[in-house]
Amino acid sequence: MTNVDFDEVSAEDVSRHFGRRRAVSRMTFRASRGTILGLLGPNGAGKSTLLAMLATLLRPSSGSIRYGALGTAAGAALRARIGVLGHDLFLYPELTARENLAFFAGLYAISDTNGHARAALERAGLDTRSEDPVSSFSRGMRQRVALERALIHNPRLALLDEPFTGLDDASTGALVSRLKMLRDTGAIVILATHDLDLAEGLLDHALFLRDGRIVEAMIAPDALRSTYRSVIGR
Amino acid sequence: MPKWFQPTTLLCAALFAISPFVIANAPYESTMGLVQKVFYYHMPSAWVFLTASVICGIASARFLATGNPRHDRTALAAAEMAVLFGLLTLVTGPLWARKAWGTWWIWDARITSSLVGWMIAWAYLILRQYGGPGSEKLAAGLALFGMANVPFIYVSVNYWRTIHPATTVVPKLPFSMGFPLLFCLAAFYLLMFLLMTLRTRVAEQQARLDAIYLSLDEQA
Amino acid sequence: MLRAILLIVRKDLTVEVRSRELAYTTLFFAVSCVLVFAFSLVQEGRAAEGVGAGVLWMAIMFAGNLALGRTFERERQSETLRALMLVPAPRPAVYLGKLTGIVLLLAITEAVLVPLVALLFESALLSHPFWLASVVATGTVGFAAVGTLFAAMLVRARSRDVLLPVLLYPITVPVLIAGVRATAAIAQPEFEVDVVRFWLMLLIAFDIVFITLALWTFEPVMTD
After folding, report:
1. Higher model confidence: residue C152 or residue B96?
2. What does the DSSP 8-state code read for residue B173?
């Protein structure tokens, strides 16, 4: 499997419908290396669907998504450069934190899976709990392990769906700094979130979504809450 | 509707209307009497059932390979034909069997294989109906597996009762019984063709309606 | 590819050893099935002639259906199946990994079922252990090959619990027939090697055809 890389992710007129329901409608945007792009919008705006398409889990009904010069036909090599933190965390509750990370590390063709797993847990501040089953963790701790799982293979593109849900202050702060660190190493970070106050200090770009459409795009966004209210109107 | 549809429908109706007379004129089969005549509807139904199943399998394979929804619509229509004509076959069969072999049901290779094939076609429809969104692809996978399974089903059912299969129970037909059979075969195949055309058109209209709906939504 | 398969199998084994949920419940369910059949089929203290083979395979198919459903229900919980589809390993590796896990689970169940059925139904199942093992192994692989694909396919469908047997049982009729006939031939006092060999060949052919088909269709069927 050859190594691929790309400098930006772009969506061109992308739509996705399920029967008669249009989940995503003609979205066009671009995100480059070293940026954090936020997808903001109410439930049902199409954030999760868009993220699933960017992750190659769903195919667009029309339009195209490109990763630099690559399309989704790049298959396995492309998947190796994408990391996804889903709403459901993607962790096996019966396995320990280390085992979860080592398992996925192995699947991402990383050698020395245990070494990488331990390093990741140290970054998450959970190395003391590495041998405990994930089912015994709090939501915040699970989130941290899930984040490390999503990033263990150093993806170029990191996609996060509502990563701040259910986190306490300390965990939130840790997540914010982790994401900033990620951006500074040149990754493309795209995250969907409800939490406007958090997003304010974090995002480099913001897309406001409503009913499957992009209604507003901002660079270096501030005053997110008022913009949100005026643009989304709820 | 295409121009040829109405005249062809009339032709088909005519064939079916005439068929009882054609069948009545066929020679009376010595041992079985009147009930044997069911055979003239039973065998064409079986052939149509088989043909529809094969069409469904091939269309499903093409749908999985290309993703073209036209193949999916064909597969769905064919599956419905398979269930309909399969049911007809499985109902007319016992009617004939009761007189021929004295029993309503017999675990003969062909009959049992047909039953299993019919259940697979039915499972296809159940999956499409109750599987929720995205079940078109799943059903196509099922149809493909069903088609690949045909030789296995036939061989296993054939050797199931005894390792030495019985010889065919369908006797050789003298030519005078051949013409009514061909007549009914033509009628049934024409019917299948018409029903499939109708069904795929309905599905196509539905897809077009969905597309219009979506594009309206876009302009809003 | 092989590495991915081994990782998945090892992961499933680890999860199973920790919770033991699947093994115990499947085993218990299989034994309950046999009991139900016993109470239905044993008349005046004696089992009907030659019923043992049928009971064994019915129990395998029912328990197998349950095990398949539960295995993929587990992957659905934290959407880990999605995570598996995201990794760069070839998608068929996921299929083969899960298939191996299911076959191992059913093997454990069968190790208990066979002596139990032989005992309760006075069936000479164990008279030719090598042949029996071959038949049960190939039959289980065939059933699991189709079942793993269907169960994976249905993970995101509605009514998946009831749809799995609806889809699975008609397709695995040849496995059932071949398995029962071969097992019955083994249990007979006059052992006919040719009969058993014929059904075994059929099962092997079924396994090859359907595993190949499943490998081809796994990716198109699992991706939207």
Report:
1. C152
2. P
What average pLDDT does chain A have?
86
List the single residue in A19, A20, A25 with the smallest CB-CB distance to B218: A25
C-alpha span between A105 and C93 (Å, rounded): 16
Which chain A residue shows the shortest CA-CA distance from B134?
Answer: A18
Residue B175 has pLDDT above 50, yes or no: no
Count of domains for chain C: 1
For chain C, how far is it from start to end, CA to CA, in angstroms?
Answer: 23
User: Measured between alpha carbons, how far is C177 from C39 in angstroms, rounded to an integer?
Assistant: 23
CA A65 to chain centre: 16
Q: Which tens digit of pLDDT belongs to each residue from A98-114?
A: 999 999 999 998 888 88
Pairing of strands A157-161, A35-40: unpaired
Helices (H), chain B: 5-25, 39-66, 69-101, 109-130, 135-158, 175-219
Is B133–A19 a contact, with Cβ atoms under 8 angstroms apart? Answer: yes
| Domain layout of chain B by residue ranges | 36-164+173-219
The rounded distance, in Å, linking the Cα atoms of C82 and A86 is 9
Which residues, 6 or more positions from C39, have their beta carbon under 8 angstroms from its beta carbon? none
Q: Does A199 touch chain C (CB under 8 A)?
A: no
Interface membership of B217 toward A (CB under 8 Å): yes
Q: Which of residues B127 and A169 earns the better pLDDT score?
A: B127
pTM, full prediction: 0.88
Say how far apart CA C215 and CA C95 lie, in whole Å: 7
CB contact under 8 A, C78 and A92: yes
Average pLDDT, integer, range A80-93: 90
Touching chains, A (3+ CB pairs < 8 A): B, C
Domain that holds residue C145: 2-222
Mean pLDDT, chain B, rounded, equals: 83
Contact C153 B126 (CB under 8 A): no
pLDDT digits (tens, 9 = 90+) for C8-39: 899 988 888 888 888 899 999 999 999 999 88
Query: Measured between CA atoms, how close is C19 to chain B, in angstroms?
Result: 30
pLDDT score, position A234: 58
